[in-house]
TrEMBL record:
Subunit composition and interactions: Homodimer.
PROSITE patterns, alphabetized: GATASE_TYPE_2, SIS
Active-site residues, as the UniProt record annotates them: C2 (nucleophile), K612 (for fru-6p isomerization activity)
Enzyme class: transferase
Superkingdom classification of source: Bacteria
Localisation per UniProt entry: Cytoplasm
Protein name per the record: Glutamine--fructose-6-phosphate aminotransferase [isomerizing]
InterPro entries for the chain: GATase_2_dom, GFAT, GFAT_N, GlmS/AgaS_SIS, GlmS/FrlB_SIS, Ntn_hydrolases_N, SIS_dom, SIS_dom_sf
UniProtKB keywords: Aminotransferase, Cytoplasm, Glutamine amidotransferase, Repeat, Transferase
Pfam families linked: GATase_6 (PF13522), SIS (PF01380)
Record-listed E.C. numbers: 2.6.1.16
Name of the gene encoding the protein in the UniProt record: glmS
Gene3D superfamilies linked: Glucose-6-phosphate isomerase like protein, domain 1, Glutamine Phosphoribosylpyrophosphate, subunit 1, domain 1
Length: 617
């Protein structure tokens, strides 16, 4: 949550920071601000609203000058989104300025101590407390900014990525991280540095980046370069510069109206990238280093426990069906936020699989730490390379979906299912729970999924027409069975988060235990009724809906006739093996929610109250 950007060098900082904030807006977008130092004065400008509102303010009022600056796009935690609570925050003297992503949990007690010493506060934020704490340490201990930050952070409980600037020391910016990501871009010329929550703001300037680890800080100086130190004891850490693989094209809309639409259409490629080098059909093998290297742990496990949040949790539910069906391994799927506080019974014979697109979700990270502390082996399925979860897990497999920027997760979901399916197939083969001929057949079918998604995407115009009919509904019900029950949950989540229409996902057979009471002629019900699996049973559920006048949108297998006669609309997907159907049935549900939200004029990529990576619990 929250995006931070900074620059120190020879160029104008303003355009770099503004453009950088726009790229980080997926992290939070309820207010934005910039501090620029022009050699004489420190100019802070901030506002409630989006980065574009901040930009508009600069067009009329604010000074854009300065070769050093820091900027912030906020997802509010402490204090409502308003101008005053927006970052940057300035210390009482006006000398120090800070941007912060995270939460200072003990800010109340720190605030009381500082208030007792005469400090005053304008905002309701924890961040203003932190900048004044740093100032207080600096004055009391008579130390430089870097040391003051280090001493202050040792008094802080919570999570942070911060950048702090002192106008009396304009040659440097101090940054630090604990639990929230922070990257430093090293400019091609030695005296230029970029700071950001991820590398996207500085991709066009440099491919060299230093990623701070938790509990590290860095003093970034025009003259002395980047010096990384441990927050705990101030010891020096060797600086490791990584070459970025990301390019600008991957983080641009590429002609699509929204990132979400681009990402929906990228799924065939994303899935191919995810199984490339892993699914070797001609040799009939699946190669996944993280699985091979830990095969004993997987095969000897009592059970798998999958922990995740949101869409990643839905991918975990699909995986539960797949692991149990193919590899006959018992699986439990847990919300990371519940698991971490439940005192779960877990030991060294359990394998925990943590799923996360961002790799930064605070609850999932905490669940991993808990599982590790109890001796479990933890395997990560992440999209963001080098993310906290990728680093915290014992082993893992990346989804190669590329950057996902739309807040509503799409290609992350289908690539997570792809990785988990590959794992299930590999383990099933190792355990002998599927025959070698079935294994070959499954590999072939999995390899064909991207082409079948391309075919499913051709229904886009048809789905847009259906979306127009139902866009004004107050409620929607999504029903599915077996492998497609989690897809129903995912479809409902997609609709809720971007169109703000209330939606529920249910196992189709559960409908008669309650939700059926909701059905009348105003209720659209999206029913996943593909040919394989429990088709006849789902058809009976459709009959039950029809007799109560509900509006039925059937997601069916190509050529289906039976549902067509009952449903108000059908959307076809190509035929595939039952356990692979989620990879296809998901596509029309993504498009349906996308079109409804666009027709309702909602902000698809930045839905209200949400942020892409949830780094607070
Ligand atoms: O980055 P993660 O996969 O850990 O994120 C988990 C959820 O926050 C995320 O899936 C969220 O539910 C999405 N907005 C859903 O579209």
């Amino acid at each position: 949550m929250c995006g931070i950007v900074g620059y120190i060098g020879h160029r104008d900082a303003y355009p770099i920071i503004i453009e950088g904030l726009k790229r980080l807006e997926y992290r939070g977008y309820d207010s934005a601000g910039i501090a620029l130092y022009n050699g004489k004065t420190l100019h802070v400008s901030k506002t409630k609203g989006k980065v574009s509102d901040l930009e508009a303010r600069f067009e009329t009022k604010a000074s854009k000058h300065g070769t050093v600056g820091i900027g912030h796009t906020r997802w509010a935690t402490h204090g409502v989104p308003n101008d005053i609570n927006s970052h940057p925050h300035t210390s009482n003297s006006g000398d120090l300025v800070i941007i912060h992503n995270g939460i200072i949990e003990n800010y109340e007690s720190l605030k009381q101590e500082l208030t007792a010493r005469g400090y005053t506060f304008k905002s309701d934020t924890d961040t203003e407390v932190l900048v004044n704490l740093i100032e207080d340490v600096k004055l009391q201990e008579n130390v430089k900014l870097g040391q003051a930050v280090q001493i202050a952070l040792n008094q802080v409980i919570g999570a942070y990525a911060i950048a702090v600037f002192d106008k009396n020391k304009p040659e440097e910016v101090v940054v630090a991280r604990l639990g929230s990501p922070l990257a430093i871009g090293i400019g091609e010329k030695d005296n230029e540095f970029f700071i950001a929550s991820d590398a996207s703001p500085f991709l066009e300037y440099t491919k060299d980046a230093v990623y701070l680890e938790d509990e590290e800080m860095a003093i970034i100086s025009r003259k002395k370069g980047v010096k990384v130190r441990k927050i705990k004891d101030d010891s020096l850490v060797p600086t490791y510069v990584q070459k970025l693989q990301l390019n600008l094209e991957q983080i641009e809309k590429g002609g699509y109206e929204h990132f979400m639409l681009k990402e929906i259409h990228e799924q065939p490629k994303a899935i191919r990238d995810t199984y490339r080098g892993r699914l070797l059909r001609n040799e009939a093998i699946i190669k996944m280093a993280g699985v091979e290297d830990n095969m004993k742990k997987f095969l000897n496990a009592n059970r798998f426990i999958i922990v995740a949040c949101g869409t990643s949790w839905h991918a975990g539910l699909v995986a539960e069906y797949i692991f149990e069906d193919l590899a006959r391994i018992p699986v439990e799927v847990e919300y990371a936020s519940e698991f971490r506080y439940r005192n779960p019974v877990i030991n060294e014979n359990d394998v925990v699989i943590a799923i996360s697109q961002s790799g930064e979700t605070a609850d999932t990270l905490a669940a991993i730490k808990l599982a590790k502390s109890k001796g479990a082996f933890v395997f990560g399925v992440c999209n963001v390379v080098g993310s906290s979860i990728a680093r915290e897990t014992n082993a893992g497999a990346y989804t190669h979906a590329g950057p996902e920027i739309g807040v509503a997760s799409t290609k992350a979901f289908t690539t997570q299912i792809t990785v988990l399916t590959l794992m299930a197939l590999r383990l099933a083969r190792a355990k002998g729970t599927i025959s070698s001929s079935d294994f070959r057949k499954y590999l072939l079918e999995l390899e064909m999924i991207p082409n079948k998604i391309e075919k499913s995407l051709e229904s886009d115009a048809h789905i847009k027409i259906i979306s127009d009919i139902y866009k004004d509904s107050n409620n929607c019900l999504y029903l599915g069975r077996g492998f497609n029950f989690p897809v129903a949950l995912e479809g409902a989540l997609k609709l809720k988060e971007i169109s703000y229409i209330h939606a529920e996902g249910y196992p189709a057979a559960e409908m008669k235990h309650g939700p059926i009471a909701l059905i009348d002629e105003n209720m659209p019900i999206i029913v996943i009724a593909t040919k394989k699996g429990h088709y006849e049973k789902v058809v009976s559920n459709i009959q039950e809906i029809k007799s109560r006048k509900g509006k039925i949108i059937g997601i069916v297998t190509e050529g289906d006739q039976q549902v067509k006669t009952l449903a108000d609309h059908v959307i076809e997907v190509p035929e595939t093996l039952e356990f692979l159907t989620p990879l296809l049935t998901t596509i029309p549900l993504q498009l349906l929610s996308y079109h409804m939200a666009v027709l309702l004029d909602k902000n698809v990529d930045q839905p209200r109250n949400l942020a892409k990576s949830v780094t607070v619990e």
